[in-house]
Specification:
2 copies of one chain form a homodimer.
Chain A (H helix, E strand, L loop, with lengths): L1 H7 L3 H8 L7 H14 L5 H8 L4 E6 L5 H14 L5 E6 L4 H13 L4 E5 L5 H10 L2 E4 L9 E5 L1 H14 L5 E5 L7 H13 L5 E4 L4 H13 L6 E4 L2 H13 L9 E6 L2 H4 L6 E4 L2 H15 L10 E4 L2 E3 L13
Parallel strand pairs in A: 1-2, 1-3, 3-4, 4-5, 5-11, 6-7, 6-8, 8-9, 9-10
Antiparallel strand pairs in A: 10-12
Chain A binds a DNA duplex (16 and 16 nucleotides) through helix 2 and helix 4.
DNA sequence: CTGAAAGCGCTTACAG
DNA sequence: CTGAAAGCGCTTACAG
């Protein structure tokens, strides 16, 4: 900075002001400083600047899984909204392992990010609460109550109901659900499914999966191994749904000929022509935009009101993986 | 730190040593310090620590596109290798926009990361050279010559030849290539295709695409609009190939009945049961692991030898999107 | 292991 | 706009 000041023939204080984009610098001096900096290849050390100012202008985004495009969509929403602000996004992932996610979150805290956004995180509520006490935190695709963090998610109960209703309207009565009960933040999909099934006078049939394609395939095999093979399957996310379809097809069954499948997320994958999966859109980008708005409200403001909860309304997108039930000849 | 020292009844210097995992601290004192830190909720400020030590123990990874799973695979390779080192990964993306990628890279530099890894970046060579002068840099899936940066990539000429040979072996003679000539780092695939076609006495037929599904669809339409419709298409990446298949299928053609398709990358997408795309595996994870090794060699060492280049050998994976040519009745 | 000092590269606040 | 001072929270190097 000293060097730049000397080259531009101004004071070090002025260089600092220019670097911080202060409005109280004359255009001429600003120009001179910028030119000198460029010539010397000078770039402000953000480490030092952040240490002194207590602001990093950085928000840390934890993406649950880089292989699942639905999280990329949430990222896009965040990015759209933060583009015209001074905040920069830094992302990390724990590759769906809770311990490594926790580690990534602590790295964000150690780096003193201005805010943290959790996208599909699988860490326990207690940890999220602790994080919320240290830095503005918003969790997406999941809700955390009784903690100083904002939640923004889709109304999954409504989404699951929409999926069941869609299949019911097509005449399906034997509707299985692939859920991941052990996975945090996915209870609502299961609840919505079970509740709606009972309301319709149908028996819920839940098979365990996880958040991967392999889990979907395993769930499909578990279904086939029983004597009761459903005519339709509602999977708790698209990746799982695709795993179900793969396994079913490999077993000689036709989708949607023999079974109809509904996914959840409406990610890029569901939209692939060859996949064409009917799916509940969880409004991923909007989730990201809303999260960004919450971040902007919190960052740099004194702790305002208590934790907030935003729920978006899901929308079912019908594609070719579902069709009216055909009577089984057996 | 002072507080922790007081609570543990040791000196501030000792706390610093413990935080840096120094071996010259007795187990008892170490325990006491760790306990005190935990109790006070103390975490070392990495901003301050990095500023003083000139090391951030952080490598910045620029991923070209979070929606393309092939980059996630490279990330996985990096992560595998860096897991047991003190280095932490921070990722950023420019969403395939060169200007935004450049911005993300500068953010890494401003943060003083120990190294930068570029995965599929679309910024110009000149910028990469400038980055390499400031920090150890390795670029993957692309090579940069005449610059102080390491390159690790697949032998794309060989990969393209393998794709052409595969189709040729199946009897195809009319083989189109969807390329993205404007896109940096993809010349070799085009060159390999064109060279091999000529060697086989065939006419190269190149259609322009980009790196997206939409680009593939546009390329497919461009092919259909001509009077010469090929019997096979080799697309320069999987996403493009899928776009081609989608558009072809929507136009009433069958893949592989009417046209065979080969992709490049062998990403998650190619492996989906419903997509089942024959694809050239670019060994993405191995790319990541190799990049990590190069980073580790450079970080903290005095500038050793000159820039290095690692080339991996691609492998074609045959799936159901290709089959022997069937004579056209026209 | 302690203690005291200097320094990392900035920002902040203020007098002029 | 300048100049000088204090401080951000650490690390480094050293004497004891």
């Amino acid at each position: 900075m000293e060097d730049v000041a000397r080259a531009a023939d101004v004071s070090r204080a002025l260089v600092s002001l220019v670097m911080r984009d202060s409005p109280k610098v004359s255009p001429e001096k600003r120009e001179a400083v910028i030119r000198a900096a460029e010539q010397l290849g000078y770039r402000r050390n953000r480490l030092a600047s952040s240490l002194a100012s207590h602001r990093t202008h950085t928000v840390g985004v934890l993406l649950s899984d880089l292989h699942n495009p639905v999280f990329a969509a949430v990222y896009d929403g965040l990015d759209d909204r933060l583009l015209d602000t001074p905040q920069r996004l830094l992302v990390a992932t724990g590759r769906t392992d809770p311990d490594r996610e926790a580690e990534a979150i602590w790295t964000f805290l150690d780096l003193r990010v201005d805010a943290v956004v959790l996208v599909g995180a699988s860490v326990p509520d207690a940890l999220i609460a602790k994080v919320g006490e240290r830095v503005p935190t918003v969790v997406t695709t999941r809700r955390v109550d009784d903690a100083p963090v904002d939640s923004v998610l889709t109304d999954d109960v409504a989404g699951a109901r929409a999926a069941v209703d869609h299949l019911h309207d097509l005449g399906h009565r034997d509707i299985a659900h692939v859920a991941s009960p052990s996975h945090l933040g996915h209870h609502d999909r299961l609840d919505g499914y079970a509740t709606r099934m009972r309301e319709l006078g149908l028996d819920p049939f839940v098979v365990e999966g996880d958040l991967t394609r392999a889990g979907g395939a395993r769930a499909a095999h578990a279904m086939l191994d029983r004597d009761r093979v459903p005519t339709a399957v509602f999977a708790h996310n698209d990746v799982t749904a695709i795993g179900v379809v793969d396994a079913l097809t490999a077993s000689g069954l036709d989708v949607p000929g023999d079974l109809s499948i509904v996914g959840y997320d409406n990610s890029d994958l569901a939209q692939l022509g060859q996949v064409s999966l009917t799916s509940v859109d969880m409004r991923s980008e909007e989730l990201g935009r809303t999260a960004a708005d919450l971040v902007l409200e919190r960052v740099g403001s004194p702790p305002l009101d208590g934790p907030r909860l935003h729920q978006l309304h899901p929308v079912l997108f019908e594609r070719t993986s579902t069709r009216p039930v055909t009577p089984r000849d057996r």
